[in-house]
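tokens incoming
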């Protein structure tokens, strides 16, 4: 199972997009998230920006470096 969370500023990870989703979880804000299979084999669900969400597809690689937002590679 995975947990849903916003990527922390000091987090560092990389993985492949397994699934994309979006929803109005609080009734007023649209949240965009992706399920990512990390290099260690663990699957995590991470909130990302709308711009990145629109540019990624299932199978794309996403990298999160410390101090930066996640980006597609």
């Amino acid at each position: 199972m995975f947990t849903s969370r916003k990527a922390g500023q000091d987090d560092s990870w990389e993985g492949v997009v397994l699934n994309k989703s979006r929803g109005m979880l609080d009734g007023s804000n649209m949240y965009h998230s992706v399920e990512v299979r990390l290099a260690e084999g663990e699957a995590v669900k991470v909130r990302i920006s709308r711009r990145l969400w629109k540019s990624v597809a299932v199978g794309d690689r996403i990298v999160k470096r410390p101090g930066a937002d996640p980006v597609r590679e």
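note: The radius of gyration is 11 Å.
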